[in-house]
Amino acid sequence: MTHTTHAGSKMRHKPRDYAQTPLNIYWEMTQACALACRHCRAEAMPQPHPWQLSHEEGVSLIHQILEFGDPLPQLILTGGDPLSRPDLFELIDIATDLGISVSITPSATPTLTYETMVRLKEHGVQGLGLSLDGPNAKNHDAIRGIDGCFDLTMQAIRWAGELDLPLQINTLVAAETAVDLPATYELLKQHKVMRWGLFFLISVGRGRVLQPLSPEASEDLMHWVYDTAKDAPFVVATTEAPSYRRVALDRMRDEGMTPEQIRRSPAYRGFNIRDGNGIMFISNTGDICPAGFLPLTAGNVRKDRVTDVYRNSAVFRSLHNPNEFKGKCGVCEHRVICGGSRSRAFTSTGDSLESDPLCSYEPQRNI
Ligand code: SF4
């Protein structure tokens, strides 16, 4: 998950320096999950990891977030299935009492009941993220690895609408799923959705069994996303496909939009954010990483301060500075607003500073 503003986001007007403070901190509260999704980053298991952060360590992590100061990052509780943690609501209360905005991405299992969603709302959760990878049970359940997941997801989507819980739908974009996107969009239009996040596959974890889109197909799809976003009743955004910002910027300029109009566009809000710059990920065992799909461990919350690791570790500092990127991304005139997916660069080359192979753009400056 990213990277873009999450479902629970409220526009903050104080400018944020992403080299100092992330917008979103994703905490993988547990690896435990009843689903077996084909693209699972966490390779989730039915049971929690034996070294999973304890309740006290989770509380300590939440308090550390305050050290970032104003504006505080948002905390996004993910997994595995965060609902499988017995201390979930206690941890939500601690974070919200400290003034931290909390969102959550539960798994669509029978645990996600109407009563649970009411409790999430009552405990101050600002946003709910659900995955919908196809417009029907056959296609979605094939990706999620369990029959009935589609129906549970659609039920949760309806309940979120009834409860007025801001909802982000995340949809996997892979060669196998891209054809379904127009139908999924039509389905989502019938519901109360705040944001639709299109996650372009990173082939890690179980995701290796799916095929990424080619750079050419991705480029075509990004133009479809731009056209769709113009009329959509919700924000349409991409995750792990920051070169969409280049496409959107070109299209907006071609349409004669002024710099001020571009600055006010939904696409602009994600500019500059990428893995490790605006994004931080804490694993279920406390490892501090630039993103969930970028398993470069820069520290661990059991012994390091998250602020110090985010601001000063070599891993994060290199990701803050697009001038350190290599290949096309290092010379591209769009490297500040885009910079490419650092996760995909790492997955495909072993170097998080290399170029994003999803992008077909040829920068105007030669390498
Ligand atoms: S070459 Fe890299 S920085 Fe430039 S648009 Fe493509 S992904 Fe973004």
What does it look like?
It is a single chain. The protein is of the alpha/beta class and 367 residues long. The protein has a single domain (24-324), classed as Aldolase class I (TIM Barrel, Alpha-Beta Barrel). The protein is built from 13 helices and ten strands. It has helices at 55-65, 88-97, 114-122, 137-144, 149-163, 181-189, 215-231, 244-254, 259-263, 306-312, 314-320, 327-331, 342-349, and strands at 24-28, 74-78, 102-104, 127-131, 167-173, 195-200, 235-239, 279-282, 287-289, 299-300. A ten-stranded mixed β-sheet has the order 7-6-5-4-3-2-1-8-9-10. Strand 5 (167-173), helix 6 and strand 6 (195-200) form a beta-alpha-beta unit. Helix 3 (114-122) crosses helix 5 and helix 7 crosses helix 8. The structure holds iron/sulfur cluster. Iron/sulfur cluster is lined by residues 242-243, 246, 328-329, 332, 334-335, 338-340, 355-356, 359, 361, 363.
What proportion strand?
5-15%
Q: Enumerate how many helices there are, as a single number.
A: 13
CATH superfamily: Aldolase class I
Q: What ligand molecules are bound, each kind once?
A: iron/sulfur cluster
**Number of E strands:** 10
How does the helix and strand content classify structurally? alpha/beta
Q: Tell me the overall shape.
A: globular
- Give the oligomeric state of the chains in this entry, treating copies of one chain as homo and distinct chains as hetero: single chain
Helix content: 25-40%
CA radius of gyration is 19 Å
Examine the coordinates and then state which fold CATH places here, giving the name of the CATH topology: TIM Barrel
What is the topology, as strand order, of the major beta sheet? 7-6-5-4-3-2-1-8-9-10
Count of discrete domains: 1
Low-confidence segments, given as residue ranges, are: 1-13
The description of the largest β-sheet is:
10 strands, mixed
**CATH top level class name:** Alpha Beta
